[in-house]
Structure formats: C-alpha cells, structure tokens
C-alpha cells in the first residue's frame, strides 16, 4: 500500500510517499480503507519533532490521526460495526491507503468522506478547550485564530450552548466568522483595543500560537481563564496548554448529533493527494485556513 512517512524530523520536505506493509486491526480496533484523512496542525508539529507528550514519536513514523473510510477488518472484541460500514474517527498513520482506527463512529448521512475526515480531532479539541476554559452560557469567549478547523467548531458549539463569541481572523475571513455566529474582528495592530471596545471578555482561547498569550491574560484579567492549544510558552504566562485528548468516542458521538441537527458544519477549504502531503503541511503551517484541509486517498 502507499503511505506517507518521515524518517527524520524537519520541514515538509522530510515527508516521503512509500510502499509499506498493510497494518491490521488488533483487539478493540478496526481497519479502514482510507478515503480521506484530516490534516491537523498536530501532524506537522509531530513531524517537526516538537515535544508533545500525548504523541511520542518513534522514527520512522507515519503521519496523520484523523480519517474516514470503509471498514475492511474488525478486531477481536469489537461490536456494533461490520465490514463495509462507512466510518470516521481517529487512528494511526492515516495518510495511507489503509489505517487502523482506535476510535470511530458511523458517518452521518449526507457527509462525504472528504468532509467527514475533517471532524474527529477538531471536534474533540473544541469540546475539550471549551470545557477547560470554564466558559458558561451568557458569558463571552474570545477566540484568537478563529477561522481554522478548531475555531470553526468552537464558534458553533459555543453559540449552540448560549455563549457569546468574539473571533479574530484575517480580513478575508470576517464574513466567514460572522456566518458562524461570532462577532468578528481582525488581528494585527490595534487588535486588543478593538476587542476591548466589543465588551467584557470572560475567557479566551489561543488556537493559532501567534504570540498573544500576554494580551489574552490582560483581556480576561486571569491566566486561568486562558487556554492555548498552540503556544508551548504557555507556562511562562501561567496559562494552561491543552494537548492531551479527552474521550474521542464521546466527541464523535456529540459530533454526529450536532451535524445531524444542523448545528455544526466545517467546510473543506482544500484537498490534496497523498503525493502532495508536503504541500498540505506547508499550507497548514502558514495558517489563514477557513475550515479544514484534507488528504484524499
């Protein structure tokens, strides 16, 4: 089978498309014929060799956590799913023609594989950081870097829970944020004052790692009301870095419910082939994403 790997840490150029042995489902797992794989910032952070305790890396390593596809092997002890079912979820080395999944759910009706691959880690992360930052209905959440996959999910889930949301993004994505129910403003010079004029900020999320933790602490007045998923310098500001996933099966269950009720939609901004994985990583690293990027197999 074809699979994307890297044998050394580094930039996108270390990614290689190789012929590899097919993996097989172990106890409590399923294997899928991958139709699409989600491209997440954690993918290139792992490739760069960043120290992420939740994702220890042994070289050579595959790439990718999220995928959607068709079940073709069911491991021992697995119930409720059969060969031929269309599923999406989280697994191992998902930039490949076949991947073993550790958590999955049946795909919602009317979702393509390409769309479904963009949800698993994004929704789990969004649910986790909303919980960790402690924001409640009636309060206002500031989301820095709001137009990407996690930001798109955060805005919609927060609004569904009665939380007011202010989102920062580039000028081209202001209407996109408004369409998701957020009050939108641009980052760049003067952004803090623009946010202050919009009212009280009860909690804040940093989803882009753009060096704004000090400002977010000032805006909320309390480092415990700020959570980042992207800035490893968080301890220096007394801010929580959220990098360990919660329950992916629970997140998938909630994702299916939200999608079915029309409360969650994350568009696919761009699709890539396995051979173009390096370009997908470079684009993801550059930011300015509206929704998701995916690898189509």
From TrEMBL:
Listed GO MF terms: oxidoreductase activity; RNA binding; zinc ion binding
Pfam families hit by this protein: ADH_N, ADH_zinc_N_2
Record-annotated Enoyl reductase (ER) domain positions: 10-295
Compartment(s) where it occurs, according to its Swiss-Prot or TrEMBL record: Cytoplasm
Keywords associated with the record: Cytoplasm, NADP, RNA-binding
Keyword Cytoplasm in record: yes
SMART domains per the UniProt record, alphabetical: PKS_ER
Tree of life domain: Bacteria
GO cellular component: cytoplasm
Keyword Cytoplasm recorded: yes
InterPro entries noted in UniProt: ADH-like_N, ER, GroES-like_sf, NAD(P)-bd_dom_sf, Quin_OxRdtase/zeta-crystal_CS, Zinc-ADH_QOR/CCCR
PROSITE patterns for this protein: QOR_ZETA_CRYSTAL (PS01162)
Quaternary assembly: Homotetramer.
Protein name: NADPH:quinone reductase
Naturally occurring in which organism (per UniProt): Amycolatopsis thailandensis
Taxonomy of the source species: Bacteria, Bacillati, Actinomycetota, Actinomycetes, Pseudonocardiales
């Amino acid at each position: 089978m074809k699979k994307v790997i890297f044998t050394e840490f580094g930039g996108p150029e270390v990614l290689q498309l190789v012929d590899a042995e097919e993996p097989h489902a172990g106890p409590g797992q399923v294997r899928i014929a991958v139709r699409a794989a989600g491209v997440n910032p954690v993918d290139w952070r792992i490739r760069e060799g960043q120290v992420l305790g939740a994702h220890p890396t042994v070289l050579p390593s595959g790439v990718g956590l999220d995928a959607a596809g068709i079940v073709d092997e069911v491991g021992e002890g697995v119930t409720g799913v059969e060969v031929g079912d269309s599923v999406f979820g989280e697994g191992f080395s998902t930039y490949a023609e076949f991947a073993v999944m550790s958590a999955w759910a049946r795909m919602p009706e009317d979702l393509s594989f390409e769309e479904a691959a963009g949800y698993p880690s994004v929704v789990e992360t969004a649910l986790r950081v909303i919980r960790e930052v402690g924001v409640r209905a009636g309060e206002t959440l500031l989301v820095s870097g709001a137009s990407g996959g996690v930001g798109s999910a955060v805005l919609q889930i927060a609004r569904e829970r009665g939380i007011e949301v202010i989102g920062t993004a580039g000028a081209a994505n202001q209407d996109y944020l408004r369409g998701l129910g957020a009050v939108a403003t641009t980052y760049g010079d003067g952004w803090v004052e623009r946010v202050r004029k919009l009212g009280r900020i009860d909690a804040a999320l940093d989803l882009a790692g753009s060096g704004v933790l000090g400002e977010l602490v000032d805006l909320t007045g309390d480092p415990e009301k700020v959570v980042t998923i992207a800035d490893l310098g968080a301890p220096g500001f007394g801010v929580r870095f959220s990098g360990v996933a919660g329950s992916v099966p629970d997140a998938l269950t909630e994702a299916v419910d939200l999608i079915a009720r029309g409360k969650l939609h994350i568009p696919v901004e761009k699709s890539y082939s396995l051979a173009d994985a390096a370009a997908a990583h470079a684009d993801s690293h550059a930011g300015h994403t509206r929704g998701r990027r995916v690898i189509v197999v």
